[in-house]
Amino acid sequence: MSNSMDDRKKIEMSAEMLKKILDYSPNEIYVLNKDACIVYANKAYEKHYGIKRDEIIGMKNDEILAKGYWKPSIIPYVLKEKKTVTIKQVSYVGKELLTTAIPLLNEEQDIELIITATQEPNYKELYITDEPEAEEINEIDFYKENLFTNNKRMSSVIKLCEKVAKVDTTVLIQGESGTGKGVIARHIHKKSRRKSSPFLTINCVTIPEDLLESELFGYVEGAFTGATRSGKEGLLERADGGTVFLDEIGEISPKIQAKLLQVVQDLEFIPVGGREVKKVDIRIISATNRNLYEMVQQKQFREDLYYRLHVVNLQIPPLRERREDIIPLTYYFLSAYNKKYKTNHIIEQDVLDIFYGYSWPGNIRQLENLVESLIVTSDASIQVSDLPAMLLQTTSENNSHNTGEQELSASTLRTALEDVEKKLIIQSYKRFRNTRKVAEQLSISQSKASRLVRKYCKDLDFYN
């Protein structure tokens, strides 16, 4: 019995073991120092926001808050009160969060560290906070109202959306099917002065040419066989004061292209079978997954109309080119459909790894549909065995095709970068023997400098 007790006394938890335990926590945990700089974040933080921990270590809380990952910030309360605070937050993917921040005080009762832990509440509760309640919104529509991304190209698109929303110029949105062209169009409308007026969508590929003409421009009494006696108001007229979104604009016929040109140029048109010119106050946003410029060269699309629609061009990258958004979008749809179907599914890391490596030919639409399907058909924990065979087969084929060359180049690059990093850290630390000055010289955070010095210099004679 005494030997057993002695053995237990000898057991010590290493920093590496503690890190593993924290990384297995499903809740976000991050730690800030007295200056509100992040000094630690666990793997849940990384997964939920699609950013690497190395990118945020050393950043100030205000910088993270400026990126909009959640609101409101809990840190000002803790710094002011110097006691544990719990508030309700909303993440940038629309997820409701319950966050607790615990200050660690020294003997002088000054804050040394702030430990924050974030989880999703499974029930409604009153939380202590001076902030107003967040406005409740259908989570499945949240992305359509509040675009978010970790991708630089997509960030540029969203910033451009904010600019063009303020004016009435025509916008052409180009991108593969399922990339969210309609979401972008609606976002522009919601940010514009027309936001309180209609936003009407018509898919030009699903409606026959003769019907499309009457849908767009309307018709007068007796315009054609089967026409109603009173005629019909067209989409353009019904959208007066608002926005018309023409999806798959590349599919319209030359005849309709000619009539649409008049609308874009002069904001006027003649209904089918009519003689009277009608004026409208509308904004036109169009979208296509085809290359309109090539269609112009091949005389399949009017050049004058192309340039009228192309005043502002937004190119939406496919999901495979913005992989840093795959995991946040997965968690967003998981949260949204859990709420819709009143379930509490979780998703295994192996599944997330497969999602990250998959090419997503159907883009965001395919990801959303798959997550919804998995929530409906799988048990509480979504596992690899729940995934469609086609997805697993495609992922396996891609990996076997690319493994050799990709692993060689990635390994070579990683090794080369580490060698350069090691050399710079050792040289700098030899010179200054001070992590703060190392950080200043190499333009990195002090916490990162300390970590790298420990990594590369601990076995050197001059390390202390």
UniProtKB/TrEMBL annotation:
<dbReference type="InterPro" id="IPR027417">
    <property type="entry name" value="P-loop_NTPase"/>
</dbReference>
<keyword id="KW-0238">DNA-binding</keyword>
<dbReference type="InterPro" id="IPR025943">
    <property type="entry name" value="Sigma_54_int_dom_ATP-bd_2"/>
</dbReference>
<keyword id="KW-0808">Transferase</keyword>
<dbReference type="InterPro" id="IPR025944">
    <property type="entry name" value="Sigma_54_int_dom_CS"/>
</dbReference>
<dbReference type="InterPro" id="IPR002078">
    <property type="entry name" value="Sigma_54_int"/>
</dbReference>
<dbReference type="InterPro" id="IPR025662">
    <property type="entry name" value="Sigma_54_int_dom_ATP-bd_1"/>
</dbReference>
<dbReference type="GO" id="GO:0016301">
    <property type="term" value="F:kinase activity"/>
</dbReference>
<dbReference type="InterPro" id="IPR013767">
    <property type="entry name" value="PAS_fold"/>
</dbReference>
<dbReference type="InterPro" id="IPR030828">
    <property type="entry name" value="HTH_TyrR"/>
</dbReference>
<keyword id="KW-0067">ATP-binding</keyword>
<dbReference type="Pfam" id="PF18024">
    <property type="entry name" value="HTH_50"/>
</dbReference>
<feature type="domain" description="Sigma-54 factor interaction">
    <location>
        <begin position="147"/>
        <end position="376"/>
    </location>
</feature>
<dbReference type="GO" id="GO:0005524">
    <property type="term" value="F:ATP binding"/>
</dbReference>
<dbReference type="InterPro" id="IPR003593">
    <property type="entry name" value="AAA+_ATPase"/>
</dbReference>
<keyword id="KW-0805">Transcription regulation</keyword>
<dbReference type="Pfam" id="PF25601">
    <property type="entry name" value="AAA_lid_14"/>
</dbReference>
<feature type="domain" description="PAS">
    <location>
        <begin position="14"/>
        <end position="58"/>
    </location>
</feature>
<dbReference type="GO" id="GO:0003677">
    <property type="term" value="F:DNA binding"/>
</dbReference>
<dbReference type="InterPro" id="IPR058031">
    <property type="entry name" value="AAA_lid_NorR"/>
</dbReference>
<dbReference type="InterPro" id="IPR035965">
    <property type="entry name" value="PAS-like_dom_sf"/>
</dbReference>
<keyword id="KW-0804">Transcription</keyword>
<keyword id="KW-0058">Aromatic hydrocarbons catabolism</keyword>
<dbReference type="GO" id="GO:0006355">
    <property type="term" value="P:regulation of DNA-templated transcription"/>
</dbReference>
<protein>
    <recommendedName>
        <fullName>HTH-type transcriptional regulatory protein TyrR</fullName>
    </recommendedName>
</protein>
<keyword id="KW-0547">Nucleotide-binding</keyword>
<dbReference type="Pfam" id="PF00158">
    <property type="entry name" value="Sigma54_activat"/>
</dbReference>
<dbReference type="InterPro" id="IPR009057">
    <property type="entry name" value="Homeodomain-like_sf"/>
</dbReference>
<dbReference type="InterPro" id="IPR000014">
    <property type="entry name" value="PAS"/>
</dbReference>
<dbReference type="Pfam" id="PF00989">
    <property type="entry name" value="PAS"/>
</dbReference>
<keyword id="KW-0418">Kinase</keyword>
